[in-house]
Design a protein that fits this description.
Blueprint (H helix, E strand, L loop, with lengths): L11 H10 L6 H14 L10 H22 L13 E11 L2 E10 L17 H12 L4 H12 L5 H9 L1 H9 L6 E16 L1 E13 L4 E9 L6 H13 L4 E7 L5 H8 L4 E4 L1 H9 L7 H12 L4 H15 L4 H9 L1 H4 L7 H8 L2 H17 L5 H15 L6 E3 L4 H11 L6
Parallel strand pairs: 3-6, 6-7
Antiparallel strand pairs: 1-2, 3-4, 4-5, 5-8
Helix pairs in contact: 1-2, 4-17, 5-6, 8-9, 10-13, 11-12, 15-18, 16-17
């Protein structure tokens, strides 16, 4: 047993802080200057083991623990006990903090009933460390890379098992997030796929489908993430959209997708009035699959008058001109647009502000970029659950509240006014 009651704050630097903070009208800047000056005089570093920040963290934690012990016992140190229980020295404990390992003295009581809150029993790290681990995992770092990061940056040894246990804590949070209630109505939802390599006996590509909604207040809301098996059809999509409806989504004005098999039928079975819109950006990208690189600029220039036409009749005229120019060289592009025409033409009926929302995929593409960055950093995942956990941590990082919401775009109000006019009977 180590008794440090007479030497609570080792070192001169923390002593300066005690003298300063016990005086009235403390000036934080003056206090910081005093601490830095004395640290320089004594050759104490700002960071690192035994540094100024480490000593201050030690002092704050020990002071808080002493206050907890006083509240637990009901009397100050040296005071008259209100019961038979009393202080019984301290024990050493090293905790990992955001500035590295810090050794503290934890007070003990005679009957062992003291349960500290700020540094709980059997806890070797503060909560901030868990958030750092989750943040690094969301960026695609493996458990080994995170352990190496702590050793290099903080001089702290954190095992791979500890890191896995920290990330596993979000599994319950993920389940709660995946079943949370949703808004009654979303003006627009986007459906997109992220391809992830999963090692299931052998490494295979697995599609994870992200459904993102735009709320009436103009926020991006990730409604959910679902793993597919590569053979998704109407039945799979009907399960997805039925789940969303059961979570509270009564109506969707426009659903933007990439012509996934069975998806339009499933959407209209769930929300009969929803307009299914072919994603213009994906339609253009799919066109490039059949075109030589040297011709892509010309194809973009020739297709722009089609998807920016004021009416469907004008779009048909422009598409006829495109067919005359490029049809003989790239007939597959012509067939692609003809097969997607029924899902493309609703776009032409809308105001320019609505077109801007459903055509500009920057919002969902920025999210997809973060997903893909984390996936590329990992390479592949041992199973679908590990991949889902990584995608959820990326989603979680978009919103400090953990709800998966983020800002949509600057010009949302004009778009909302256009939606209110176009869908006046449904947007109330």
């Amino acid at each position: 047993m180590v008794d440090t009651t007479d030497d609570k704050m080792p070192g001169v630097v923390p002593g300066v802080m005690i003298d300063a903070v016990t005086s009235e009208n403390v000036d934080p800047k003056q206090l910081a200057e005093q601490l830095l000056t004395q640290a320089k005089e004594q050759g104490v570093n700002l960071v690192g083991p035994g540094g100024l920040l480490s000593q201050l963290t030690k002092q704050v934690l020990e002071t808080a623990l002493d206050a907890e012990m006083t509240e637990h016992l009901g009397h100050e140190y040296g005071g008259t006990p209100v019961a038979e229980n009393m202080r019984n020295g301290t024990r050493s404990k090293t905790v990992i903090t955001e500035i590295g390992p810090v050794e503290i003295q934890v007070p003990r009581d005679r009957d062992g009933s003291f349960e500290p809150v700020i540094v709980p029993k059997r806890r070797r790290r503060l909560d901030g460390i868990d958030q750092i681990v989750l943040s690094l995992t969301a960026r695609g770092l493996t458990t080994g890379e995170i352990a190496a990061h702590f050793a290099e940056v903080y001089g702290a040894k954190v095992s791979k098992d500890t890191i896995s246990r920290i990330t596993d804590k979000v599994c319950g949070e993920l389940a709660e997030w995946a079943t949370r209630p949703l808004d009654l109505l979303y003006p627009v939802i986007f459906v997109d796929a992220i391809v992830v390599k999963v090692r299931d006996g052998q490494v295979r590509n697995t599609a994870f489908y992200v459904v993102m909604g735009v709320t009436t207040s103009g926020e991006r809301d990730i409604l959910g993430i679902w793993a597919g098996d590569g053979a998704e059809g109407a039945r799979f999509w009907l399960q997805v959209f039925t789940e969303l409806k059961n979570r509270g989504v009564n109506d969707v004005l426009i659903a933007v997708c990439d012509g996934l098999k069975g998806l339009p039928e499933a959407i209209n079975s769930t929300w009969p009035q929803t307009v299914v819109q072919q994603c213009i950006v994906h339609l253009l990208r799919n066109s490039f699959r059949y075109a030589g690189r040297q011709h892509r600029d010309g194809i973009v220039k020739a297709l722009k008058p089609v998807y920016t036409a004021p009416t469907e009749a004008a779009a048909l005229d422009r598409f006829a001109e495109f067919t005359e120019q490029w049809g003989q060289r790239y007939p597959a592009i012509i067939r692609l647009w003809e097969s997607a025409w029924a899902e493309f033409v609703p776009f032409l009926e809308y105001d320019v502000e609505i077109r801007r929302v459903i055509c500009t995929t920057n919002a969902i593409e920025s999210i997809n970029a973060r997903y893909r960055r984390a996936i590329r950093a990992r390479g592949h995942f041992p199973n679908e659950a590990a991949a889902m956990k990584c995608l959820y941590l990326v989603t979680r990082s978009l919103d400090p509240t953990g709800g998966g919401r983020a800002r949509w775009m600057m010009r949302w109000k004009p778009a909302l006014n256009a939606f209110a006019i176009t869908f006046a009977d449904r947007l109330d």
